[in-house]
């Protein structure tokens, strides 16, 4: 009978087979066990690298944005500094103007000795004589008799005219342009009159009644180029003037840089084409029946040096209205200009100016409102001078 193997024992011949099998199983298990960590490490390393790159990129963007913000702030800071510098410069200029004005007002003389009356100074290479006031008497080709009536009354002649300019700094000239025809008989007549009296200021202007606004611009520009004056005056050739009183009146405003002095008024804007002072641009002044802005009447007015210079510089773009006095007033609208309503510059003819003179209030200028000048001035100018004049020696006693 065959002997059976015990159930608790394994045959020795299977041991090598089991060992080899377990070895390979172990190797297989070992390989599978280590692969995932290796893959995870790669993923972790890759993830960490991406995160680092992301941080670096974000940092670059942050730095760029920060740099842009810094540049903007620097530009803003520079702009603020520029504004502060401009304000400081403007304040310094204002202070210098105030100091100059104060010096003029207290000393009654210009600050620099070279700028005393009669001194010839150069500006842009051109000689200019320093004076107190330039008085331009507006005249026309047909007004020879009016000019003679002025010469025979309030306007000094010959050597006295030169002395007035040299000692007092008061320049007086008849202002006139040219005719439309070159070297016409009208121009030759003025040339002859100038050779006799030496009291004209010829303008580069074609004379015409409807060209008074243009003539005014050219007069101020020409006067500014020729003389360095504190004041520039326009007066019509049918107005009586007391030079001494006028010079004293102007001297009161010598410390003010931008003054516009005259008899201020505000007349109606005339839309009717059939009236004398018709304003073609009446619609610019609002509804029918409106009045003009305040401006000095055209018979006589004075402006300070700064305003005359302003007209000279901006002459090409200054608008001309139908009436010369309105045009002048419009040029100062919007500017920092002080309007001086000087009523002594618009007295009436005798008995008005005579009564005032007897009361000790001698008028600067006299004329008739009804005629926009002295009515029949050729015949009456001497009469007005006798009744309302300050006396032939009045201007020589004035201290400027």
UniProtKB/TrEMBL annotation:
Please state what the protein is called.
Hexosyltransferase
What family is it from? Belongs to the glycosyltransferase 31 family.
What Pfam family is a match for this entry? DUF4094
The protein's GO terms of the molecular function aspect are:
beta-1,3-galactosyltransferase activity
Required cofactor(s):
Mn(2+)
Organism annotation: Spinacia oleracea (Spinach)
**Subcellular locations according to the entry:** Golgi apparatus membrane
Record's keyword terms, sorted: Glycosyltransferase, Golgi apparatus, Manganese, Membrane, Signal-anchor, Transferase, Transmembrane, Transmembrane helix
This entry carries the following GO cellular component terms, namely:
Golgi membrane
Membrane topology value: Single-pass type II membrane protein
Q: Which residues cross the membrane?
A: 12-34
Q: Which InterPro entries match?
A: DUF4094, Glyco_trans_31
- Domain (DUF4094) spans 11-104
What Enzyme Commission number(s) does the record list for this chain? 2.4.1.-
Coiled-coil spans are none
Pathway field = Protein modification; protein glycosylation
